[in-house]
Design brief:
12 strands; 2 domains; alpha/beta; 14 helices; 6-stranded parallel β-sheet; Rossmann fold
């Protein structure tokens, strides 16, 4: 879901400005983004997944063949569709799509949101007609042509309602609320940890637990414990109700936490770009190292933050000051200017 968030924010702003805007989405065939895109009534097209994992895998052998297949399919896509702009914020499908777009003379926007520059964006940035990034240090890593803009967030995320959340999730109005979200694909480790402390946690707070597609498996059934694999339209209300958010360190989620000034406990995925993301925000939230976290430590950390309203407010204000997030309209102006 990471690369999806800023693109959807810009789509929302552009569609509000121009109702005749037509968008086609290209992604992976089984990715979690498909449900979100189709919920927006955006046509979704899939390409073969051609990636080189960080670890040695049989995928290394198949990747070149899959890439050729993806490039061919992308080329056919441009041959039969009239496309004015390709927008990318990373993701496996971006490279063949952008290469094909360049061949057909289509304008290209590439956005870098994570602290560490993705390999996908390293490969596609030189082809971009418009190159943007979230953090000031990207001027060094991506060159002088990059524009530092922050990270766009969907305005709809800011429209949540606590009352609507209580009505939708049927939670206890006398309790505070903890929102647990592991990202679009979920987080098996985080789900397991929460499952181990859920019975203790609900004695103190409501819990909204977004587990990720195919990763529910929660063993506790309780009226104050709302478990779903995925939230789409209801996510804004879950955010509105949350006193504390427990999350991984994807930049899409961090941007939403920043826009909403939410107090958070962040547990980055070990040995991934999320660790760099977490280091950049460690003064604005509680960052825990997965390799050192126990169920008791996670439980205590959540309860301590629930009990400390000053700390929550301080975290929220610092999180909101991280970088601009409500900038989708400005990005639309910039992209419209590509054709001028």
């Amino acid at each position: 879901m990471g690369p999806v968030t800023p693109l959807l924010a810009v789509y929302e702003a552009w569609k509000k400005r121009d109702s005749s805007l037509e968008v086609l989405w290209v992604g992976t065939p089984h990715g979690p983004e498909k449900a979100v895109i189709e919920d927006q009534n955006i046509p979704f097209f899939s390409l073969p997944v051609a990636r080189f994992p960080r670890y040695i895998s049989w995928e290394w052998v198949l990747a070149p063949f899959r890439f050729v297949a993806a490039l061919y399919k992308a080329t056919q896509f441009f041959r039969f569709q009239h496309i004015d702009l390709v927008a990318s914020a990373g993701g496996y499908t971006a490279v063949p799509v952008i290469l094909a777009a360049k061949v057909f003379g289509v304008k290209i926007w590439v956005h870098q949101q994570d602290v560490d520059v993705l390999l996908t964006n390293r490969l596609t940035a030189p082809l971009a007609d418009c190159l943007t990034a979230a953090w000031s240090h990207h001027k060094t890593t991506l060159g002088k042509n990059v524009q530092i803009i922050g990270n766009p967030v969907r305005m709809s995320v800011l429209e949540g309602s606590c009352e609507r959340a209580y009505e939708r999730f049927h939670l206890n109005k006398e309790k505070q609320t903890v929102l647990v979200v592991g990202g679009g694909s979920g987080a098996v480790w985080l789900n397991t940890m929460i499952d181990q402390i859920a019975s203790r946690l609900i004695a103190r707070a409501n819990v909204i637990h977004v587990t990720g597609k195919g990763k529910s498996g929660a063993s506790l059934c309780h009226k104050d414990y709302y478990v779903r694999e995925f939230l789409i339209e209801d996510m804004k209300d879950a955010y509105a109700l949350a006193d504390v958010v427990v999350s991984r360190a994807g930049l899409g989620t961090i941007s939403e936490l920043s826009a909403l000034a939410k107090a958070a406990i962040i547990i980055p995925l070990p040995d991934s770009i999320q660790e760099s993301n977490a280091r950049m925000i460690e003064s604005a939230c509680l960052v825990l190292d997965q390799k050192q976290v126990t169920p008791d430590l996670l439980f205590t950390s959540i309860i301590d933050l629930l009990n400390d309203s000053y700390r929550r407010q301080d975290f929220g204000q610092k999180m909101q000051n991280l970088f601009p997030t409500r900038i989708a309209d400005e990005v639309v102006e910039m992209l419209i200017g590509l054709d001028e």
